[in-house]
Structure formats: C-alpha cells, structure tokens
Amino acid sequence: MQRNRVVAASLVAFCCVLVGALLVAREAKDGRFKPLCRGAVQEETARLAIGGGGVETVSSDDSGSPRSDGLSVECEARAEDRSRHVTFSVGDSDFAPDVLDQTLHDNLFTGDISSPLGAGWPGTFTVESPGIAHATVVLKCSSGEHDYLLLNVKSLLSDAGTYFSRSKKERLRLAQAAASMSSEADRQWKCGAQLGKKIRQAPADPLRSHPEPLSEATGTCRSMRQLAPIAGKWGITQAIGTELAEKSTTQDCLLINDKGKRVYRLSALSGPLAQGYRSSSSVLGDVQGKAGREEKGGGWAWASAQCPQGEPTALFTAASTRLGEEDRVKVSADFERAMLKAFGSDMAALHGCGKPALP
Hints:
Blueprint: H1 2-30, H2 43-50, E1 55-59, E2 72-79, E3 84-91, H3 96-102, E4 115-116, E5 123-129, E6 132-140, E7 148-157, H4 168-188, E8 212-213, H5 228-231, E9 236-240, E10 250-257, E11 262-269, H6 271-279, E12 292-293, E13 300-305, E14 314-320, H7 333-350
Antiparallel strand pairs: 1-2, 2-3, 3-7, 4-5, 5-6, 6-7, 8-9, 9-10, 10-11, 11-14, 12-13, 13-14
C-alpha cells in the first residue's frame, strides 16, 4: 500500500512537470504570448518583469484557484535563459494575510522595512533578500464585485552579480511591472480604482541608507525627533525611515542604537492589510482590542485609529526586534506609549484618520 502511494505521488509530480513543459513548448512554438492570471498579466507586464529576451510561461492559472471565501489567482513566468523567475498574484481583501507575508509585515519584530512604490501608486516595494523582491499594490474598488484588489509581483534573480539591493534598474523594472499589472487588473475586474502615474524613478532600498540622527530624523521617522532626548536613555540615537506616502498601506520606521543595531521597529498598517493582520493566525504579535501592550516581557505594543469613508481601522505597532532575549532593548511602558503616540498620530493624520487609541 505504501509503495502504491509513492508510485501515485511520483506520477502526479511527473504529470505536473510535463504540463509545465508543454505550456513552455507550446508558447515557444507559436511565438505568441498568452495572457496570464485571467488576463491580468499581459505581454507588456511580463516583459517589464522579465527584462530583455524571451518569456516562458511556467504556470498560467487562467482558470484561477479561487478560495471558498474570495478571489485568489497566481501565475508564473521566467526568462528563457532562466535568469529571472517571476510570480504574479491577484486577490481581494481575503488575500491580505498573504500580502503581509510578501511585504515582510507578518513578523513586525524583524529589522525589515518597505518603501513606497512611488508616482501616486498605493503600493510598496520590499527587498526580501539581495536577489528577491516584491512590488505590491492595494487598489480600493469603487465598482465591481470586490472591495479591494491586492496585487503582488515577486521576482527572483539568478544572475550572478545582479541584485535588487544594488540595482535601481531592476527595482524600477519590477515596480513598473506591478503598475502595469494593476492597471490591467483594474480593467479586468471593473474595479474603478484611483491609479498612479507612470513610475519613472526606482523605489528606494531603505536598508542601504545611512541612519539619520534621531534628532534630525525625516520621512516616516520625523515624529521621533521630539523623543530624541529621552530615547538616549536606552541607547536609541538614530533612525532609518522612508519617504512619506499618503497612499502607502504599510509604512515603517527603524530605530537604531549607538552600536548601530536595529532595536525597535515602528509600523503603520492601513486598509485591508490592517484588517488582515488582525484576522491572520500566522502573524507574530497579538493585537486584541483597540490598543494594548505585552505586560509580561514588554517589547510589544499597539494602537489603532478610526479612518474615514468606511476604511478599516488603522493599526500602529512598536516592536523590539528579536536579537535574542539578552540583547533585546526593552523600554519603559511610558516611552513605548510615547513612541506610539508620536508615530501613530503622524501616520494617522497622513492617512486622514483620527487620533489613535493608546495603550
């Protein structure tokens, strides 16, 4: 019986590989690109994501793989020379927990940070590793059957010496592919969203930026300037932030100590991503109620703010990064509350939300 199961599993795996090979061969034979992800990925999008050279379809998912409770479509393509592999995803608000994982916001205890996509697009760019990056867009629909469309383009580079963390060209190409896909998805699903303009400048990779003195912090960390005199008590002297973007649904500020280590992460989630964080079972960090703080060990606190026009409640968090229990910086409850008040109030005002409820 066990042997039969192994044989059956092997046959299934072989068939999957064969189907993928047939898709690639068929496309190569007729030379025409067939739209992917139910038409959301047209040739222009695929070529922007892949770059020069031929494009091969790995998985078209034209029929989709809908969840029982919403829209979820995924497809894949790669460069003929195998230098790039790209995964395209589209979903509605039920897809939010997956997007949190893709933008590295499922674990807010890490020293990661996303940057705005730019050009008025409601999206972010996340460098997961030097050779892996995500461009993510959240469209709010004014028509059609979905409240939101959440889109993600993940690119994996296998070129030796080519990295998203170093190449503005690669970051720009991926950002433009996400914008192109979002425009087509908006049309395909009759979303009626407000779209951005043509992206002409590469999104930043904030982690390659030099930290700013906390007293001179800018962008998403500007609210921390007022706390610089008190922050020094815990060795927090610098910050890394990103450009302020009213339409970005995730924004972060990293606080750096006098040894150059990332010790605290302040994050703001709005729209379906805030709602997705609260409902997800895979995130690290419980956020029960409007506001709270981990009383036992400290190092985790959250706040929330009501937003207009039926938007989900915005979420603001302060997390001590996991450097190991002995190395973790744990500030007082009063200072953690002060950080949330300053950061949360600034981000809430940016998004047109009310004053945050604090722990």
